[in-house]
Amino acid sequence: MKIAEFPPNETARIEALHSLHILDTPPEERFDRLTRLARRLFDVPIAIVTLIDVNRQWFKSCVGLDIVETTRNVSFCSHAILSDGITVVNDATLDDRFSGNPQVTGEPYIRFYAGCPIRSESGHKLGTLCLVDMKARSFDADDRALLKDLAAMVEQELAAVRLATIDDLTKLSNRRGFESLAQHALGLCKRIGRPACLLYVDLDKFKQINDRFGHAEGDIALADFSSLLAGNFRESDVIGRLGGDEFSVFLTNTSINEARTVLGHFEQAVQQFNRHRRREYELSYSVGIVEFDADAHRDIGALMQSADALMYEQKKQRRAAVH
Ligand SMILES: Nc1nc2c(ncn2[C@@H]2O[C@H](COP(=O)(O)OP(=O)(O)OP(=O)(O)O)[C@@H](O)[C@H]2O)c(=O)[nH]1
């Protein structure tokens, strides 16, 4: 067996993949529809939309196999993303890249594989749409053209998900994206009995930045604040711009005390940013922190409401202090 090399643009590729915030999200009909279609059209037992992450291949959609990921080492698709065209393995036992692969020598005894790379809008090969069979097969030019068309449909769906869930200005999740990812992360924390916290953040006097320095400067301030959020919370935290100058962060596996510590570091980062930039305005914000409590919070919406109310209290106190 040969383990696939990393593509030359691996760091940028992983960045492009992570920026979609799609890994570990629940199954979606828009992708399942396409894997079902692929399975029927090619009459194969298994069709998968895989995404190649740092150390694993994760399945956004998979029909015919009851797993959601494998290690990257044993992944056929890690080989397929090295090529611009379709990778076809007619009989894996005869291909020295795969003959010793545990998925060939053992369950599910893969023999045939055909994978077409799926690209991000920026051109990175994020994964594949692939077909798998337990018997050796041929794959002709018409088959290749059809698989390419289906892979293009997967790419369109990926772009549509991105458009619907990512905020264009800051590249953070928008409200819809945030709620969906945070709800999913909350479910995970509940299942494994770990604490979780939510921060609701609203910039102070942001309207003044727009009014005094123009809308474009307001946009820069929003983008700067987003970068500070993205740079100072963990990759596993969910960060979103809910709209206007409102943001939220969902911290997985974090108690309220830990969340306060993280927020302290964030505050230092914002102050340092203000000192270094020496602009005519400073970034400042009000924030509410709430720890998830199953008795008080039905869902992520209820948690956001509690944190929003606390944020508003802080904002009122700050205004009163200024007056
Ligand atoms: N530049 C820019 N401004 C925006 C954008 N979205 C919303 N805004 C503006 O953000 C401002 C938010 O107003 P407020 O919620 O009153 O904000 P504020 O001045 O921070 O008020 P306080 O929260 O009470 O301190 C409004 O003037 C919106 O027009 C955007 O994408 N870019």
TrEMBL record:
Q: Gene3D superfamilies, alphabetically?
A: 3.30.450.40, 3.30.70.270
The family database entries (CDD domains) matched by this protein are listed as: GGDEF
Q: What is this enzyme's EC?
A: 2.7.7.65
Provide the transmembrane region boundaries: none
Annotated GO molecular function terms are:
diguanylate cyclase activity
Q: What are the entry keywords?
A: Nucleotidyltransferase, Transferase
Pfam families cross-referenced by the UniProt entry: GAF (PF01590), GGDEF (PF00990)
Which residues belong to any copy of the GGDEF domain? 194-323
Protein name in the entry: Sensor domain-containing diguanylate cyclase
**Which source organism does the UniProt entry give?**
Herbaspirillum chlorophenolicum
